[in-house]
Specification:
23% helix, 394 residues, 23% strand, nine-stranded mixed β-sheet, five-stranded mixed β-sheet, alpha/beta
């Protein structure tokens, strides 16, 4: 049975892991805390960047000889393979740690088996402590491994009555400067930021992270099916961050020479399929996507069962008319409603930030692919088309 000291150490490891958000992809975020034989913390660390030392290595280096006879608390099962770094399971054995407690088993078939290696070396191994907290902190990577597609966070800003713009299309600014700054934090934690052609055409958005020290710039992705929205000189084409333009495979895109372009097949409806887009991003090492497009783009992702988390910024403003935050998501009756579990609410300046995820889905372990919706029920046929309309850059 876990002691209070065990819980405290693992909770600190979870907090450490979060420091790596946005800089470790395509690797997971991991935190590690080492206590000596008498129960005092002697080492702590986290995976800081892809290709760099893993969390266990940082913690063991700090602990030195004091790790011998101690306990290591790790948010993810120690890896068992040699990639750009060595196997952490072996490092723990060589450091003389006699007990390892990890929160979540590693679902990556290339890296799993660390627990068995530790046990074979005589190390006491326990798992499952604060598993829910560790899963939530590593949701993007776990989803990408389990489902073979990036984790998608849909962000929107709206009035209290659910409008993202006034009837005449104006929307700057519905929410406060504090909320807009918070969105840059979300961008900094994502591998890619995605908008559609409507937003690109109307706003000429920049989509790079601003005001976050040390941020790794995400990939800026514009879904421009007809290759007509992104023009030479567009802000998204500057050198502030990398950019990818997704277009249909049958359009002329000579004006995008020198730009990273991915060509995707059209669906029967003429748009690009959500699963095809996510597969293309996954192949490029993208493990998390911040969806910032308009209501139609968001509706397409929701209909495809490809929204894993929702963050809504609600301003104390009423408009009464204008576009709603979410377009057609394939819901025709109340029994098909996309039910959410609210996981957090917070005041951001004068606004309310609501964080939620599809009910009973966790980080994706219950779902079998991008064509499954909340609660595991199929939504669509896996070829949901993306047709984007506009929302102002938040």
């Amino acid at each position: 049975m876990a002691t209070a000291a065990d819980v405290n150490a693992m909770r600190r490891a979870v907090a450490l892991a979060a420091r790596g958000l946005g800089s470790t992809s395509p690797n997971p975020v991991v935190g590690c805390v080492v206590l000596d034989a008498s129960g005092h913390e002697v080492g702590a660390g986290y995976h800081e960047r892809a290709g760099g030392p893993h969390a266990e290595v940082h913690a063991l280096r700090q602990a030195g000889v004091l790790a011998r006879g101690g306990t290591a608390y790790v948010t993810l099962e120690p890896c068992n393979h040699t990639g750009r770094t060595g196997p952490c399971a072996q490092a723990l054995v060589e450091a003389g740690v006699t007990r390892v407690v990890y929160a979540v088993a590693d679902p990556n078939p290339q890296a799993t088996g660390g627990a068995d290696t530790l046990r074979a070396a005589g190390v006491q191994v326990e798992h499952g402590l604060l598993a829910d907290e560790a899963e939530a902190g590593n949701a993007a990577w776990l989803t990408s491994v389990r489902l073979g597609r990036p984790y998608v966070l849909w962000k929107y800003a709206a009035t209290l009555d659910g409008r993202i713009a006034a009837q005449d299309g104006t929307s700057r600014w519905i929410t406060s400067p504090e909320s807009r700054a918070d969105v840059h934090r979300l961008r900094a934690e994502a591998d890619a930021v995605l908008v559609g052609s409507g937003t690109a055409r109307a706003d000429d958005p920049h989509l790079a992270v601003r005001g976050v020290d040390g941020a790794v710039q995400p990939l800026r992705v514009v879904l421009d099916t007809e290759a007509t929205a992104v023009k030479p000189g567009a802000r998204v084409l500057d050198d502030a961050a990398p950019t990818l333009i997704a277009v249909a495979d049958d359009v002329e895109a000579a004006h995008l020479a020198g730009v990273d372009v991915v060509r995707l097949p059209r669906t029967d409806g003429g748009g690009l399929s959500v699963p095809a887009l996510l597969a293309a991003l996954h192949e490029r090492g993208v493990r998390s996507v911040l969806l910032e497009g308009g209501p139609t783009l968001a509706g397409s992702f929701a209909a495809a069962g490809a929204v894993d988390k929702v963050v809504g910024y609600l301003a104390p403003v009423l408009l009464g008319a204008g576009p709603a935050a979410l377009g057609d998501a394939g819901v025709t009756t109340i029994t098909e409603a996309l039910r959410l579990d609210v996981t957090d609410t917070a005041r951001i300046g004068p606004d309310l930030r609501v964080t939620a995820r599809p009910a009973s889905t966790g980080t994706g372990s219950e779902r079998t692919g991008p064509g499954r919706g909340s609660g595991g029920r199929p939504r669509g046929n896996g070829s949901t088309a993306v047709h984007a309309t506009t929302t102002k850059e938040h």
